[in-house]
Amino acid sequence: MRAGRWARREFVERAVRLGAGAAMATVLPLAAAGRAYGSKPHRDAATSADGKTESVTGDSSLGAAAAAHGLLYGCAVNMNALGADAAYAALVREQCRILVAENAMKWGALRPSAEGFNFDQADAMVAFAEANRMKIRGHNLAWHQNNPKWLEVTATKENARELLVTHIETVAGRYAGRMHSWDVVNEAIRVEDGRADGLRDSMWLRLVGEEYIELAFKTAREADPQALLTYNDYGIEAETRVGEQKREAVIEMLRRMVARHVPVDAVGVQSHIAAAVSAGNKSAASQYGAGLMRFIGAVRELGLQVFVTEMDVNDRALAADEVGRDAAVAAAYRQYLELVLGDPAVKAVLTWGITDRYTWLGHEEGRADGKLERPLPFDAAGKAKAAFFAVREVFDQRGTAVSHG
Ligand code: XIL
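Above: inputs. Below: predicted complex with XIL.
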């Protein structure tokens, strides 16, 4: 009954994959999670590419390696998993010095109704981070996605300003003084929408006008004067024509903001990258380069910091073989981080998840063969992969050590 066993395994893998990405994901019960991790008796050690058994915890963790070189490392956390899967919580605690909620601080999670706020998961995330002396990023206060139905139905040109301001005052105000940074506006540029300024045709733009960005940042600064206020976006990484157009539009927007004294402190480069863009293309080297570095340099010259906010490496275009996929994903992490960490403005690196078990990748456009993607430093059983060692080596090699507060 070999085929039957494989079919069942495939079913469980698919269930994990579908569940893991959804905003309100259900997770496997503790027993199943425990089994996956528990089968690795020495989770504190792993075999690196050169065959040595190396510690991956304590001073050898990603968080410690980054901190030794003036960098913050952390990840996005899935709050459903954090509450249900003790091994996952332990992994996050062991590796991270900064956390961001994958979904729990978005409008969709915080605003079940027009009147009410539900802070249960967001508060739990903040409590977990603070109990473990981790810094916290907030994500996010204004976005075109994950807005609740009631908002889309009831927001008008008359009330949209007030809705946005009240939300930011309440949410940023609640955690004031405790946040490292806030993604105030997420993904506001989309050159394909055809506007001269490159702004995305979003609900906030249509109802409030282009000043929604300025309004959001000013309100966030008043609500939490200490958090580093961040503009966060994707698609500014690659050496493509659209990538270059998007970089130009983002920089122009930032220049306008700085000129008008809009309180912006940092730019988040999401960094959802690809190990390869097409079958047979085994390298990330040609995809990310001078254009991105010019962008980061221009951000630095505006006096702003840069955070890599959501890094993962999709393996969609690679053949099924896991060893080959892991090597290519690790090479992409190495090439990309060596490149961007070459600029001193880059102060933090966060991966979008930490174990492949809960990656968001795959629930939209997954691998054609239906296999789970392997985009993160740890595999689904919590074992450090080649990507872990690549990231740690790049952190270890970063120039002069500087302390961060
Ligand atoms: C994603 C989450 O990972 C998913 O669980 C959710 O279903 C959709 O959103 N850019 C962002 C993040 O800024 O908020 C997105 O997170 C990933 C892309």
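The two ends are 58 Å apart (CA to CA).
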